[in-house]
Amino acid sequence: MNRSGSIGKLLMEWYGALRERFGHRNWWPAGSPFEVCVGAVLTQNTAWKNVVKAIANLKAEPALDPLRLYEMDLMQLAELIRPCGYYNVKAARLKNLVSHLVEKHGGDLDALFLPPTAALREELLSINGVGKETADSIILYAAYKPIFVVDAYTKWVLERHGLMPERNDYDSIQAFFHANLECTVELFNDFHAQFVAVGHAFCRKTPKCDQCPLERFREREAEIWRAGGSS
């Protein structure tokens, strides 16, 4: 049995089971690519419902625009995004992203997104406060380039099903998906959203495995490792 091919098939069966349970997730919910960028910064360490409130405040100002945010006083911005928590830190990070966009690309997202994926990722990661998950969310959901976004839920599911060892780093987990799945925006988009859905509903710090749609794959997972090893 080909281990890599077996894992890829298993992952797609996971995806089918999750989509059957949760439906297409239609993620990322935003009215524009720039709103995705803002949301990617604001969603760090907070529930999405709080991000929605913060973005609603920005829209009401109205300030959901690169130039408006660039010109806005930092304290005013922090107050507008207060619902998302850590608002002073996030205001500074959002300012850093917007300043880079305006000063290097004239506020034009298309110009920022023009380079190949690897170069765009490197540029985003050079911005103070933009980490890997934030950068990859922007690349996938705003720039529409295929890159798999890894979050805590994804890591928990892989570890608990024995597909990745504990304490694996972000890049190793991302490379695992890139090696075993067809690299398309559509698949990476919805698959990541499915991991969020199953993580939120079942694969929490205290998991509810008996109710999880992935529980039925345990025997298949064991067969793969018996046939191909774990190295």
Secondary-structure element string: HHHHHHHHHHHHH
Structural category is: mainly alpha
Please identify which CATH superfamily of the largest domain we are dealing with: Hypothetical protein, domain 2
How many structural domains in the coordinates? 2
What would you report as the Rg, rounded to the nearest angstrom? 19 Å
Spans with pLDDT under 50 lasting ≥5 residues?
A: none
Q: Could you report the average pLDDT, rounded to the nearest whole number?
A: 94
Structural notes for this entry:
Helices cover 63% and strands 0% of the residues. The protein is mostly helical and 231 residues long. The protein has two domains: 3-26 and 149-228, Helix-hairpin-Helix base-excision DNA repair enzymes (C-terminal) (Endonuclease Iii, domain 2); 33-141, Hypothetical protein, domain 2 (Endonuclease III, domain 1, Orthogonal Bundle). Helix 1 (3-22) crosses helix 12 (185-201), helix 2 (33-42) crosses helix 3 (48-60) and helix 8 packs across helix 9 (132-141). The mean pLDDT is 94.
Keywords:
231 residues; mainly alpha; Endonuclease Iii, domain 2; Endonuclease III, domain 1; 2 domains; 13 helices; 63% helix
Topology of helices and strands:
Layout: H1 3-22, H2 33-42, H3 48-60, H4 66-71, H5 74-80, H6 87-105, H7 109-112, H8 117-125, H9 132-141, H10 152-160, H11 170-180, H12 185-201, H13 218-228
Helix pairs in contact: 1-12, 1-13, 2-3, 2-9, 5-6, 8-9, 10-12
